[in-house]
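re: that chain from earlier
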Amino acid sequence: MTVPDKPNRWKHVAGIAIAVTLAFLLLNPSGAVRRWIAATSLEWDEQRREAAGPATGRLMLPGESTFDSSDHPDLADALSFITAGFFLPGDGLALVERTEVHFVDMASAETSVFGGEGGGPREFRRISRALRGPESIALWDILRRRVVWLDHDGDFLRDLSYQGAPFKSPLPPPPVAVHRDGRVVFGDSQSRAFSDFRGRTWNPIEYVAVNDEGELEVVAQTRGYEHYYGNDGSGGVLFGHRSLMAASADHFVIAETDQEAIQVFRWDGSEVRRIPMPPPARVSANQLRVAREYMAAMPSRHAEMLSTVWSEEEMADVDASPLAMDLWPANELAPPIDSVFIDFDKRLWMREYHFTDQDSVTWRVWDLEPATALFRIRLGADERLLDARGDVVLLRRTDEFDVPRAVVSRVVAGNER
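^ sequence. v structure.
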């Protein structure tokens, strides 16, 4: 991963040129790059030894619940999806639905609601992501390409449309972080044209901060994700590597899953430390078979989704036949992790790669200053981790009717067996 100098911007170049340039820099580093490697190698070795302490940390499990949204009728009836959730200063929680946000005072059980479905200035078409900012939360209305900022009391601060931002991606790129100055950072990428490339490659990602005038500043440049362009279609390599990003008001982290360490940066672009990656897991024959079958059935799932909004006449031309996945490229070793985030206390959480046949997921937790392994926590595969604070976690769980609820649980020591 590289961080650009402040005065410079990446030039717009063809997709194949990006890959060639990245490969050249990696295999034939310039004098400046070689000097940087020499200058930081000793520092990295020292940090790795210092961080080696408890290499994995003690195992923890969610224990007694201190809050459950299903115990509150106004919340139990309102929560149907739970896109995201955050701990707020004091006893507050923010629970983000598709078109509204519920602010909860856990001490008093009082709640308030912001938003609703619609096209007005304080309404949403579809909240697909929510991010923690320095003093606010940012809500991404993907259908309107708009971000709405709310303060911790649930009051409207401002909104901004990104309709005209000069992204490279033909589709709205996902917002991945909030810069310390309040700008939203997007993971922008430009895929190669299907007709121009064949084979296995990487599609690079530029993480760009966008200001109110729609101007882009490149925060970081990464290899992106492994992609395959075949004769019958294109898509991600099975168990392919990718770049992940998370941020707090002080730092942002870049995790390129084919590397041995996660890089931690200040917002001025200076790298301050590296955190070792967990070891990768070998893909079993059964896990590979399940992945191929899942990908092969994608047209069928797509057709099923379209059938809920399209007429029979419109559906007549939809091809739901399975994809040919037998020769699709796959990695023998899965990426070490598949998700990262920074919690309320500015700790780094990384999730060990989760296979579909596993009934649990494991998160590893690190302090960033100093870089110290704290603990691991094991959750059920159907439990979604939303946020953490101190010794409690905010989880999304579902009941026997698949209705979601938000649960705050204290973590307790678990059994390693």
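The two ends are 37 Å apart (CA to CA).
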